[in-house]
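Weekend entry, working from home. Most of the wet-lab plans are on hold until the incubator is repaired, so I used the time to fold the two sequences that have been sitting in the queue since the last round of cloning. Logging both here for the record. First:
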Amino acid sequence: MQRACDSDASPATAATAHSSAEDQELSVTLRRRPRARRPQESHPPHLGPRLPSRELGRRGEEAAAYYLGQRGYEVLERNWSCPAGEADIIAFDEAEEMVVFVEVKTRTDIAKGLPEEAVVHSKRRRYERIAAYYLRDVMEPRSECRVRFDVISLLVVGSNRALVRHHIDAFSSPE
């Protein structure tokens, strides 16, 4: 057997020529190309392996703290815990002279919505309780301070890049 049309054959097609005295036949055999497998996850391939959610959240909080520092905020606490829960970042906004409680949300895609959409009513109420504990336990007694609740959302768009949105005064307690 001799291969014919090797230079013209596509990877999916192979042609072989049978030589015999009685007849010359050209037979074509089609080979199926293996199907490209679709990724099981909705994770973009350019981001490399998927990070565990805690690691993704930790990196998002680091980026948010850096972002706030670059904008003149003083980061007072990170991952501050109390009986009401944990605040991702507590910062002081010197320009506005207020304590800012920041919820950080990081996502690698928007299949489940934008990161800031995950800050639902129950999480807002929890942050209000966390603020009450913080003001009672950490701030100087009888010191007056204004409080604000912000959300920083990060949408990862590359291995070391993210779209950052800072939602200032994202929610507040009803008065």
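Second, folded right after the first finished:
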Amino acid sequence: MRIFGFTFKIDPFVNDNDAINAFYGKCDDASVAGSGGKTLIHFDREADSLDDALRRDDALRSAVAEVQGEGWQVREITVEPDCLAPMTSS
């Protein structure tokens, strides 16, 4: 399996450290950052391929469900660029 990175922009802006710490207690593969009134949550999830991560496996769906379980809404999802194309040597 490979690791795929997803970053979510969520609403509302989260600046409650207790809520963030509680979220960390449920998701050990997430990082929360806030800046300029925006909250970003980054996940690293395992799947056999990017297609599986996005469509078949629970990698993306489970991350969205965990965010929504906190009452937060996912507004945008970014797939990390290094997941899109394999590194090649010259």
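Plan for Monday: verify the second prediction. Residues 4 and 83 are 6 Å apart (CA to CA).
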